[in-house]
Amino acid sequence: MYLILKLPTLALHLIRDERWSAMRNTIISLYQPSHLAGLIPTMQRCIERAADAIPAAAAQEHGDVDLSDLSLKLATDVIGQAAFGVDFGLTVTSGGCEAAEFVREHVHSTTTLRMDLSAPLSVALGLVAPALQGSARRLLRRVPGTADWRVARTNDRLRARVDEIVAARHRERGRDGDGEGARRDFLSAVLDARDRSAALRELLTPEHVSALTYEHLLAGSATTAFTLSSAVYLVAGHPEVEAKLLAEVDAFGPPGTVPTADELQHRFPYLDQVIKEAMRFYTVSPLIARVTSQQVELGGYKLPKGTWLWMAPGVLARDAASFTDPGTFRPERFDLAGEEQRRRHPCAHIPFGVGPRACVGQRFALQEVKLSVVHLYQRFVFRRSPRMESPPELQFGIVLSFRHGVKLVAVERRVGTA
Ligand code: HEM
């Protein structure tokens, strides 16, 4: 939903019915535990590289590290590897990479598009009169200087770059045989699936493949980055939470011990609570959309076919009926054995959406965030910088972000001490 601005109408979250289920079924295997477990070494390499960059980044910025910026680079690098099989190298301080310009544009557009008054007019119109949005956007994108025009230009450039990457992969496969098994990235898996089935070849045209790949880059980077940086920011302000988290990380093994996917799931119950609570405290996707495919009655209202519905997970997350004292950061409220958790409605906390269209990348994102937190806290503790505003100013955009970033002081840990 939150990508509506920037994606061609071929991407997963914008298509419906048969085509949607065929495409979702094709890619869902990439999010199964066995595939995700195989991504741990790739994710870990990117995470270690990002952590290595922290001291140098801090030295340039009066001792502060901008964790939002670093997390976005990290998440984009991870998606680059997982979706395209390309190393964007964003967290590498020196040396360039062939895709650097593409990614710079991506990072820029991800962090600057907004839904406030500076947002494209067509987006605001889409919220009040969705039926008019399409024609308004087509018109406004031709008017130089409007936000719609700027978005369209960035959009076109990014899509052209993705098309280039996909076309290059097609050529590479033609040259080296089908290459099956050689690569484990998303793009290769979709191309393999196409090669195996004539029906899928018809459904997954090259344009759909580009759109799906592009969607992954956008859907998986700013969301995951925000989640990571907000969790570390919140922990930095709550010493009692930090102490429990460090105890769990240290009990797992000496610095450098890399958890398997299974260990990440079962050996870090407090980390689970911290991440859930951070996602509740700052809900990254402000709105989730649905359109009725037939007339339905909901809560006493008759909704005709074609009605747009907007859910606001961040509003649910602040409901005192589900979350005692909702303005307090308290990970223990998600303790599986706790009373508050037991009596809460299962849909009270839905940062990844809900139902058959819920986020396909949920496990991927959680694996990446957990792996990052474990590695970061094996090496550092973080303190809020006096140079950062408090409370942080939030920017309500396609996804939530910190308007001025998250500035932290990273203190290196010595083995066995905080
Ligand atoms: C913390 C990180 C993330 C959050 C909070 C998040 C949140 C969401 C939400 C709220 C939706 C809409 C769900 C609905 O309509 O019910 C969504 C959809 C989607 N997300 Fe995520 N997401 C995250 C990470 C990722 C990652 C890492 C990927 C891919 C690698 C991804 C891929 C997608 C896709 C493809 C859809 C559209 C699914 C469909 O329409 O079938 N997301 N996400």
Automatic annotation (TrEMBL):
Names of required cofactors: heme
Protein family according to the UniProt entry: Belongs to the cytochrome P450 family.
Keywords assigned: Heme, Iron, Metal-binding, Monooxygenase, Oxidoreductase
Binding site for heme: 359
Identification of the protein by name: Cytochrome P450 711A1
GO molecular function: heme binding; iron ion binding; monooxygenase activity; oxidoreductase activity, acting on paired donors, with incorporation or reduction of molecular oxygen
Organism: Panicum virgatum (Blackwell switchgrass)
Protein origin, superkingdom: Eukaryota
Keyword Nuclease attached: no
